[in-house]
Amino acid sequence: MKLLKYVVLMMVLTSCNTRNSNVPVVGFADAFEDNTIEQAKTGFIDALKAHGFDEQKGTLKIIYRNAQGSIPALTQIIRYFITKNVTLIAANATLPTITAIQNTKTIPVFMMVAATPQLMNLTDAQGNPPPSLFGVGENLNYIDTSFLLIPQILHPAATKPLTVGMIFNQSEPQSVEAINRIKNLAAASHIQLVALPVNSSADVLLVTQSLLSKHIDAFFANPDNTVFASFENIVQACNQQKVPIFTSEAGLVARGAVAAFGANIYDWGYQAGVQAAEFLQTKSTKDLHWQMVKVRNRVYNPTVAQQYHLQFPPDYKPIQ
Question: pTM score > 0.85 for this model?
Answer without folding.
Answer: no
